[in-house]
C-alpha cells in the first residue's frame, strides 16, 4: 500500500491565518497548510527579538520558515491577541495585502504554565489564585473572541470560508469529565462552544465553523516534560536509570505529533463538502478516518476512542489496538 502523501496543490492560492502559531498545535497546523501550498500568516507573541511569558525559544519566524520549506508561503506577524488594537492592525494589514482570508484557525492558548502541574490540579476554586484563574480564562476565551471580532469580517468576504476553533477534548469527553480546575475546565468547554455559537453567525454567510481537538499531542513542552525529543519519544515510556524523568504511561504510544491535527485542518479546508461538519467538534483521529491522512510516521492513533472504551468504559484493550 502506498504511503499517504499530502496534496501540495490542494490549498494553492488560499490565504490562511493561524492565530497562535508559535509552537504546539498552531505550528503543526501552519506546517500542514504549508504542505498543501497555502499562504499562512503565522501570529504569536514570541519572535526572535521578544519572548512571551512562556520564556521559550520557539518563534513565529521559525514556524513561517517551516511553512515555506514545506511548499507554502509563511508570513510571521507578531501580535498579542489579548490586545484588540494589535489584532485590529493585523486585520488592516491583511485587508490591504490580500483583501480577504479563506481560513482562520483560532489556536491561541498561552496558559500552559499558569495552569500548573499535577500537584496543583483538582483543587477547589476557593484554594485558587483568582488572578491566575482569570488570566487562564482571558488567554483562552478573550483572545478567541477578539480575534473573531476583527478577522471574521475578512473570512466572510468570499463564500466557502472555514473557521476553526482548536481546543482540548471533544464535546462528549468534556461534557462528562472535570478538567483540572474550574478555570481550565471552563476554558476548554468554552472554546468548543465557540465553534457552535460563531457557526450560527457564520453559517448565514456560507462559512463553515468547526471545533477540533488533537489527541495526546507530542508538543515541544510535552516532550520536554518527559525528557525526550521527537526522534526518541518512545523512550518516555521507559524509566531512566537515575529515575530523573517522569515515565509516560503505556497509552503514550497513542500520542501524535502536532502535524496530525494540522493535516486534519488542511483536509477540512480542502473539502468542497466541508459544510457537513458545521458547528461540530471533531478529533484529529475522527477526521483521519474520514480523509485518510496519517501522522508523520504513517500512523493514525485514536486515543479518544481508547479513553472512551478502555479507560472509562472498562473494556479490555491494549493501546496498540487503537490505531485506525
Quick structural gist:
With 324 residues, the chain is α/β, with parallel strands linked by helices.
Which secondary structure elements does this structure contain, and how are they paired or packed?
Elements: E1 15-19, H1 24-35, E2 39-44, H2 60-69, E3 73-78, H3 84-97, E4 103-106, H4 130-155, E5 162-166, H5 171-176, H6 182-202, E6 208-213, H7 220-225, H8 258-270, E7 281-283, H9 284-291, H10 303-311
Parallel strand pairs: 1-2, 1-4, 2-3, 4-5, 5-6, 6-7
| Class by alpha and beta content | alpha/beta
Total helix count?
Answer: 10
Main sheet summary = 7 strands, parallel
* N to C succession of SSEs: EHEHEHEHEHHEHHEHH
Q: How many DSSP E strands?
A: 7
Helix content: 25-40%
Which consecutive residue ranges, at least 5 long each, have pLDDT under 50?
none
User: What is the CATH T-level topology?
Assistant: Rossmann fold
CATH architecture: 3-Layer(aba) Sandwich
CATH class annotation: Alpha Beta
How much is the average pLDDT? 95
Number of structural domains? 1
Strand content is 5-15%
Sheet with the most strands: spatial strand order: 3-2-1-4-5-6-7
Ends apart, CA distance between termini: 15 Å
| Global Rg | 19 Å
- What's the shape? globular
